[in-house]
Write a structure and sequence with these properties.
Number of strands: 0
Helix content: 55-70%
Number of domains: 1
Distance between the termini: 32 Å
Largest sheet: none
Shape: extended
Length: 49
């Protein structure tokens, strides 16, 4: 599942070329990809209720 998300990001038309370069640099590093894409980010309410 995380590989699908990684591939989706890698193939997206990204405006941020640095981000695309980073994603391309980890293409053959499963641990680096897993570290970045295996867990959904959790966001709080920033104090809003």
């Amino acid at each position: 599942m995380y590989l699908d998300e990684y591939k989706r990001w890698l193939s997206a038309n990204l405006i941020d070329f640095d981000l695309h370069a980073e994603l391309a640099s980890i293409e053959n590093d499963d641990e680096a990809i897993k570290e970045r894409f295996a867990v959904a980010l959790k966001f709080g309410t920033a104090g809003l209720r």
